[in-house]
Structures are given as structure tokens and as C-alpha cells.
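User: Please predict the structure of the protein below. I'd like the answer in C-alpha cell form so I can feed it into my own downstream comparison script.

Assistant: Understood. Taking the following sequence of 608 residues as input:
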Amino acid sequence: MTPRPRLRPRRGIAMIVVLLVALAVAAIAMGATFLTLNTSLVSTYHARQSVLESVADAGLEQARSAMNANDSLYPDSGYVVYENGVTVTDAAGQTIPGITRWTYVGPTGVTSGQYGVFGSIVTIVRDATGSQVVRRLEVMQESFAKYAYFTDVEGSIVFGVNDILYGPVHSNDVIQLQTGTPGAAFYGKLRTARTITNRSTGRYFAGYEENVAEIPFPETSDLNKLQAQANAGGTAFTGSTGGGTGQATMRIEFVALDLNGDGDSTDVDEGFMKIYSVASTANAYFVTADTTGNFGTNGLTRSANCGHISATGTGAHTAFRTFRRHATGTTQDRATWAVNPANGTGHRCYLGGSNALNDWTTPAGNFLATDSIGSWRAWTGTVDARVTAARPADANYLWPISRSLNPNFKGVIYVDGKVGISGKVRGKITLAATNDIILVDNLTYVTNPGGTTPCNAQERDMIGLFSGTDVLIADNLINAPQRGTTSLAYRTWSGRGGDEYFHAVVLALSNFTAENYNRDPQDVEDCQGANDARGCLYLTGGIIQYTRGPVGQTNGRGYIKRYQYDACAASNPPPYFPTTGHFVRGHYYEIDPAGFDIDTYWELLIPH
């Protein structure tokens, strides 16, 4: 039998195995080293990138703060270089090595100011390796329309224990609260540049701040800027300052029409206004139905604004039961006023120019453009056929307040002088007057401001009233109760009840007040069960005034306040409404730095 060969160890195999193991270990070690190095590089890159981004963000806020401190830094057009390759310091004031920053500031978006003042801040940050980040912050100036209540000077008026205010409140003066319960309630943040007297008695559902920075109050120059916008749209008018308090030679009545037959008047082209004026300031009382000029020795029995339903149709006025104006009626007609005024539903007073005052000299239902005292102003543009179909009698006197029918309209109506206003507002408007704006009757939106319509919806209505003096609720024959004769009790002659309703953001360079708020009578009209001379004053919007004006007294004279805040005024303010000059943060953007050029980029931010 042949024996098996013996296995002998091969020389050098152990050495090879050792070398292979060593190489494997070295490879693993090298991989680990490279992995650690790569992780370190990635970490270093992200840390450096984070520094660049933080420096860019800090630049945005620094520029915004600088603009709020110095409004001259913000240009009217284009952009300015706020920082030009400057070195940057950290929070401790130490220079961050190798990093430089460029910052640019200017208006962007729709730069006309119609929708507010919008701008951008752009920062570019680079390091020594060539890494770069670009950031943009959109900024906007706060509109005064954001405030439910704003005053520059409070004076001696005190917030009562039952006063309730919704929305932001600011004063540059001391806020004074009446002591007692339940205490004035503030549902928006209350801020004052000074202090709050009797602070502990108030109720602050959004907090309060004292000794904040003053906010500069608007000036006459801000009002004058609006004239150019109104000129462009053909809605700048020359009135006068003639007449007494609560009187004007011009009034504007807002009108909403259903042009497309859909059962409402909320479409963008369905808002209009009518303008009535008199040439003589002696007749300014008639325009606003003011009491002065309407009262004779026997009360309203010779009034040019008031009358009654004639039961006999005597004389030239032959139509049975037709409204007879006292100023043109017979002695018998005037005497009818006092026969049974307590239940005389036909006894009414009207604003100057109302067709009811003229229909005894013109066929019933026809529109009289010119009466014996004043006239309506004809629209200077082309009348749309739908307007003629909807209102054939006065179509020529309906001024469109929409771009659909007046393409050059900028949303601004400007009156040089005083103006009385009333009616139904459809659209977004700022009405400015160099003198008093007089609320002669209810002024309300077509769309309920307390409803669910979104703020940015085209159906949402908004009007801002900007007066160079006062915004005044007239003590006239429409708003306030009056005596028919000196022997009769006070009553309301408007036919719509005693309360007043106003939807508007009010800005008065003097104050917002009610004419003769402290005049008799007392406790004639109810306000939600509480007796008061003129009932409830329902105002939805905001009140911005230089000094706080009164509208009533606790003794039963004037109005009881029922104010509501329109939050939509903050996000969608009236056109060209004054701004506080304070820039707040808007949208934030991260910009691709590859091939970035500031001139090219800025050109893209301006609509053409």
C-alpha cells in the first residue's frame, strides 16, 4: 500500500495573511479617517453657511430698524445702497473674519401707494472663499386704518367704566380711565406713549404697554397728496367753506346699483355717487338739512327741507296725497303740520336736492336735476347703457367710482372745502376734504362689514374719511330729533328711526364729534333700552383723531356709543390712506445666489 504524502506548510503564507490583514485594517482606518474628515468638512460648511445666513438675516432687521428711525433712508423710487461691502460684527461687537455684507432698500410691488406702502430689503453676504447667500424681506408701512382708536392728544376726556373698545388702541398722550366697575374694556392691545391713569380699573384682554415710542400724527401735507390722485380720476371737486357748523354747499350721496340683474349690487362696477351743490353759501343749510335756516317763529312750518303729505291737493298741487314742501305750500298746508304730528307718518324732512322736495313741480317719479335752490352735477364721462337701463331718470348724474366704468379712477375723492356725505358705499374709496366732512345721514357698506366676506374679496367695501378739520355728525333734521313747532315735543323726522349707522375709517386732523352733542333734548330716543337724546351711534371701522371729540354726555344728551372694529381695514386699508411710517415684516425669501445681480433682480420686483 502506497502511503499518503505528508502535508507540509508552505513557506511565506503566514506573512501574506498578515500583510492582507494589515492592508484591510489600514483601509478601514483610512476610510474612517476620510469619513471623519468629510464629516468635519460638511459640518464646517454648514456652520459657515449658517453664519452667512444669520448675518444676512441680521442685515435685514438692522436695515428695517434704521428705516423706522430715519424715514429719509427710504427712497421714492428705485433702491439705495444702505451697506456696501461692510465688515460685520457679532453680538459681542467682535468682527466676524472674512465676511462682508451689501444691503439694498427701496419700494417694490405696486409703488403708487394705492394699496399701501410696500418695499423690500435685500442683503448679500459673502465670505473669503466665495460662498454667498442672498435674502429678501418684504416690508410694509402700517396704515393708520389698522387702529380702532388713535389720538395724538387725549385732553380731559375719560374712558367710562362701561366703554368697550375692540381692536388696537394707541395714544401719544395719557390714557385716563374712570374708576369703578366693571371698568373700561380693551379687546385689542392698548398702547400709550405716556401712562394710563387709574390703570388697575381697566380690563386688558390683549395687554397694554406704556411709554412706547410716539407715532407721528398725519399732517395737512398728507391730505394734500391725495388731490393729485383724485385729479387723475376726475373726482377732485371745488366746494367752499361757507355756511355754519354742520352746513356745506356740496353733498355726496353714494349709490349702489344692480347692473347685471343678479339680485345684488356687490359687483365691482356697481358703485356710484351723486353730487348736489348750491352756488350761494346762504343756502348751505338746505344742502345738509341743517336746523339753522329751517326754523321760523313757528318751528319747521316754513322749512325748505320738510313737508307733509297733502290730503287735499289744493292749488297748483293737484295730485291727491302728494308731498308738499312747507316753504312752497299754502298757509293751509303749513298749518297741517301741527294738526296731528304725533302720528303723521307723512311728515318728513329730506336732504337738499331730494326728489321728494321737487315732485310738485315735475311729474312724479322724474328726476329734477336743478331745483329752485341748487343742482345735481352731471357725470363728465360716457354713461354705460346698463346704468341708463337701471336708472333712466338720473343716469347722467351717477358718477362711477370703479375702474370698470371710470378707468382712471384711483379710489380717491377730493373736495376743496366742506362736504356732506351719506348713502350706500360699493367699492374701496378714500374721501378727503380740506375742511369738515359732515355725516348728514347713514353711511353704510353694501357688504356687511361684520359678515363672512374675506377682507381681500372684491365684494368687500371700504371707505376712509380724511378731514383737514373735523368729521362731524350733523345735528340736522335727519339725524337728530326736532320740534315741529315750538309747542310740540321733540320727535324724529327722518322716517328711518333714531339710531345712526356709519361704516368708515375716520381720520380727522382735528376731531371726530357730534354737532351740539350737549344740546337739549334729553332722553328722547332709546339706545337698546337706555334713554338718550339721539339714540345709538353705531360706527364700524376706526377713529383716528388729533384730539378726542365728544359725541354725547352721561346725562342723556347726544349719543350712546356702539363702536365696532373693522379688522379688514388693517390688511386692506382704504386707497392711499396715510401710513404711520413704521415698517413691519412681510414675506421672507431665500434667493438663489448663482449669477445674482441686484439691478436685474430689482427690475423684476417692479411691475410694468
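That's the full C-alpha cell string. Residues 49-142+583-605 form one domain.
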